[in-house]
Amino acid sequence: MKIAIIGAGAAGIMAAITAKRLNKNLQIDIFDVNKSIGKKILASGNGRCNISNTSISSKNYIGENPEFVNFALKEFDFRAFEKFCKSIGLLLDIKESGKVYPLSNEAKSVTNLLFLALEELCINIFCEHFVQDLEKIEDKFVVKTAELEYKNYDKVVITSGLGAAPQLNSSEIGLDFASKFGHSYNPTYPSLVGLQTQNNYNGKLQGVKKECLVSLFVNGTCEQEIFGDVLFTSYGISGFAILDISQLAVLNLISYQDVNVSLNFFPKLPVNDLANQIQSLLKAVANQRVVDILTGIISNKIAPILLDICKIDINIKTDEINAKQIKAIAYQLNSWKMKIVDTQGFSHSEASGGGVRTIEIDNKTYESKLCKNLYFAGEVLDIVGNRGGYNLHFAWASGYLVGKKLSN
Questions:
Q1: At residue 187, does pLDDT exceed 90?
Q2: CATH number reported for the structural domain that contains residue 283 in this entry
């Protein structure tokens, strides 16, 4: 039996290794546009490769039907993944947070060992091969690149991902193939991405980093709250908390909903307590500019903008400010609202949402319900995970199920 896999990322590699281990008689060809396999694996976790997570459920995923992932997560849970890693010589570093990294702390270790496993199984790897078209003639598939046609494939697996990180030669060609065989797909969007705000304060807050309670409001209703790092940028906001909350924010943004984020700089302090502390601070220092004294609790970049938002004179002195103005400052620090107008796009996103509709895919084999012997796995499907190793784990798990089916 002859099999083509389009995309040498986590899902495609896992499908190939699993299938060939179960059936040595298979001929498996993997095609990838890049010079080497696993480019997105290399980019994961800032080069450290957040390869999986010990605690995973459908609640960690977004899509038209997040529960689609349940069977894959059951069949290929973290323990199964750990066993697979040991089988290729990869040891893991499991953090208290549940995030999992290679023990070497280098993503290159992962791709090197995966390549050796593919090589040992005599799986053919065609790098720098951009698949432009896919046809099915009678019961056989034809894979077409710019230069050549590869014929007589009994089965084809599409693991080509979506548009996140185009600098790594990612594309949405998989959706074109899916459409050609009758599949529909949900609109794609950048996920785990920085957010552009209506007011970026002329970039004056760029570089400011603060742990905040971030609240996401959609049409005036609070839909999600996350505590973590917020980084102010020239375009708006980023940081881990913003990347996390961006998934739901962008999903609503592309549906033309009103999306706002509120930052609480001091979530452990009720607003009245914060006002009292600010008042005590200012009273303790006579005849000084409030903007200067505020830098004792917030960034010197934030202080002047804070006063401007509260319509307080930048040169007001500590003995001139009144209780109403102090309360206004406390309220602003307790709920700093920013309207979200856009994202930083696919080139700055860690993952893509949207994709091939899972209702058209068998959740146990990942075979198309519309075209026999055509399979989809990984990011090309309308499933996107939270930050923390969830996207890679879904790629491994879906690729594993495909591999099992391919071996039959």
A1: yes
A2: 1.10.8.260
Residue written as tokens 């230069």?
Answer: 147
Q: Which domain holds residue 308?
A: 271-334
Is pTM beyond 0.85? Reply is yes
Three-state SS for the chain is CEEEEECCCHHHHHHHHHHHHHCCCCEEEEECCCCCCCHHHHHHHHHCCCCEECCCCHHHEECCCHHHHHHHHHHCCHHHHHHHHHHCCCCEEECCCCEEEECCCCHHHHHHHHHHHHHHCCCEEECCCCEEEEEEECCEEEEEECCCEEEEECEEEECCCCCCCHHHCCCCHHHHHHHHCCCCEEEEEEECCCEEECCCHHHCCCCCEEEEEEEEEECCEEEEEEEEEEEECCCEEECHHHHHHHHHHHHHHCCCCCEEEEEECCCCCCHHHHHHHHHHHHHCCCCCEHHHHHHHCCCCCHHHHHHHHCCCCCCCECCCCCHHHHHHHHHHHHCEEEEEEEECCHHHCCEEEEEECHHHECCCCCEECCCCCEEECHHHECCEECCCCHHHHHHHHHHHHHHHHHCC
Is residue 223 located within the same domain as residue 298? no
pLDDT in tens, 189-204: 999 999 999 998 999 9
Overall domain count for the chain: 3
Same domain, residue pair 309 and 167: no
User: What CATH number has the domain bearing residue 207?
Assistant: 2.40.30
**Which CATH number do you get for residue 171?**
3.50.50.60
Token look-up 């099999």 returns 3
The answer on pLDDT for 45 being more than 80 is: no
CB 405 within 8 A of CB 367: yes
* Tokens describing residue 71: 């069977």
Q: Which amino acid is at 368?
A: S
42 and 126 part of one domain: yes
Provide the 10 A C-beta neighbour count for residue 112.
18
pLDDT digits (tens, 9 = 90+) for 81-134: 999 999 999 999 999 999 999 999 999 999 999 999 999 999 999 999 999 999
Q: Are residues 285 and 394 in the same domain?
A: no
Task: Count CB atoms within 10 A of the CB of residue 66.
Answer: 18
